[in-house]
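During the reporting period the student researcher (J.K.) took over the structure-prediction task from the postdoctoral fellow and processed the backlog of single-chain submissions. One of the processed entries is reproduced below for the supervisory committee.
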Amino acid sequence: MFHATTYALLPALALGLLGGPPPAHRAATFYDGQARHTKALFSVKATNNAAAQAFTTTRRSISRVSVYVASGAATGRITVEIRRNRTDPASAVAARTLSLASLGGAGEGWLEFPVNTAVTPGTTYYLHLQAGTTENKPIAWYGTTSTVPGSLTSWNYDKAYWGGWHPYGTRLAFHVEPTGTERCGETDPCYVPTAALAARTSGLLSNHTATEAVGPAFTVGASYVGDSNVLRLPSGRWRYLPTGARTSVIVPADDAGAVAQAAENSRWLATGTVPGGTAAQRATARRALLSMRALLQPNGASAAAWSPAWMYSWPRDGAFVAAAFAATGHDAEAYRVLQYDARTQRSDGTWEARTKLDGSGPPDACPWQLDANGWVPWATWQWYRAAPTGDRTARLTALYPMVRKAADHAAASLGANGLPPASPDYWETPTAATTIGTAAPLLAGLNAAADLATTLGHDIDRTRWTTAARTLSAGIARHFAPLGYQRTIDGRHGRDSAAAFLAPPFNQAPADLPAALTATQQALRQPNGGLAPGDDPGSHWGSYAWTASTSFFAVAWAHLGEPARADGVLDWVLAQRNTLGELPETVNGAGRPAAVAPLGWTGSLVIMALAARQGDPLPTPPLR
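J.K. obtained the following structure tokens:
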């Protein structure tokens, strides 16, 4: 048994991941389960501990049983038996063993055991549980200390404390032949490995007016229904967001609304292209496109991810998403992002670092970031180059005032050294020196804006921005190139993955860039194989790899005609997908997805790299 020092093994599961209170047990004259699991009741570690729960059933056969357990041990086994005699192993009519390693190691949640046995209705049986491990870690069967009307006795085997079996008034959490919401993965999670909880979100449901995150506790045993944002649960039922709803529902697998939504998702994908040379690449691209669409709001705001700290629209992230939509033929979605940028641009031509998804303004006082003045014109140019020719000039004309204000501010920001001032960039940290993460995007944006000006016949604008682009290019060559395109012009902050922004499809690459990218990639590689954004001694990346920073190099190498290098990076990024096929923001030192999944920015980068590898690279703004 557990005494006064007993503690909950995985309290994280109790902090909002369970989807509301569990259902009450069935009101009946028999007792075949109760769902409450607020306390670790009994240790079940062999050889001195086990537990058993008496039950009766009206059934003549049982195909599965479930118990709520938590394990601090990562290895070992958990065995369930259905016994006629609680103390006699030979009386077992069914037994099944699960390996903790196969479950993902230490964790907590409902375990379902297939047992497939005949039973006699009305007979009292005992659900017996015992675990074995060589680790000095607890393994417990959870339940409730509250009264459960009509319940039968719970038994604890503690050889050291009781000398054997002892009855309790507490009730263990179990189900005999669980159905409906009793199945794990619906209102309560299946057994969730502790390592899976490193991520805040693991998937998305969407009806394109509302979005809902799928937490990691509810992805175990789940999968998407084909190419859709409808989730197939371990029970076989489906979870989805019906049209017009704000909250998901669970429905039978043949529900007409869910089937229709899944079909619509697939039709939308078919309106564009899905890049990739292998089945895994195409599956990743399809999922990335669906996730980017799920993060896109009706007003054009593109959420970075669907967790509170990420549920904002960054101009930088949105620019990449727009470019990826455009490159795959999803013109309406790309243009919607750019329209949102036009509406949220500040009067001086800049943007807030991020905005609330309703476009009402910034959520806080986070300093604005100058790189947006390059990314948004670059994305506009990418959209225009890919857009259907029919009315694209008229639609570009509507966006041009935004481009003009952004490019004019970028041009005016250049100092006597030809570079923009110090500004926070994608690191979102203060800096005292100009960064490559600001200079390179502004160069891309100025060249893109100049080409758009040419398209619309605005020769004065073209001349002004071409001159500024040449000035900036010379400043980068003078101050960044001698340092191998490190993070800052003072050479005090090490390498930066943003060096890849000097490569296509952002900029025409300087001759010395490939060597600098090779050195940068080597310097930023983490033990888990991915890349940190930088190696500044004062940075806070730890052992984490960032999938966006890693993907910068997939995009760069693919567009520089280095397929082997691009594929090496892509292979690593694709290997980090979670069980739903989503791309996470970060990967921790243990090689597990962390932070949030999916991240729209990473998805857009992977799509761009795959397009280039398939022989359809994104264009690069020309030098003028």
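The committee noted the following: The longest strand covers residues 107-118.
J.K. will present the remaining backlog at the next meeting.
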